[in-house]
Specification:
It is globular and about 35 Å long. The chain has one domain. Strands 1, 2, 3, 4 and 5 form a five-stranded antiparallel beta sheet that branches. The chain contains two helices and five strands; from the N terminus they run H-E-H-E-E-E-E. It is of the alpha+beta class and 83 residues long.
């Protein structure tokens, strides 16, 4: 989904931590939570659209959604992940 060379240079815009491609299981859990109305992004807006994938921050606290093959690398769009 994401070119490996691009993934190597992408980083969290807030902390500059590295990112990894979320597993299919993580994406499915996020999409189920989105469909149930249980996900708000960091900006406080409820997320209603499914994601195609996600890039998980190295510390595992946030995931940046991938929509239409494009990673959305905005801090307010980051999705919090449960530990």
């Amino acid at each position: 989904m994401i070119d490996p060379e691009l993934l190597e240079i992408l980083c969290c815009p807030e902390t500059h931590q590295g990112l990894t491609l979320a597993s299919a299981q993580v994406v499915e859990v996020l999409n189920r939570s989105i469909e149930a109305g249980n996900v708000s992004n960091r900006g406080g807006r409820r997320v209603t659209d499914r994601i195609d994938g996600a890039l998980v921050r190295q510390d595992g606290k946030y995931a940046y959604p991938i929509r239409q093959k494009i990673p959305v690398m905005l801090m307010d769009e980051a999705l919090p992940l449960s530990s």
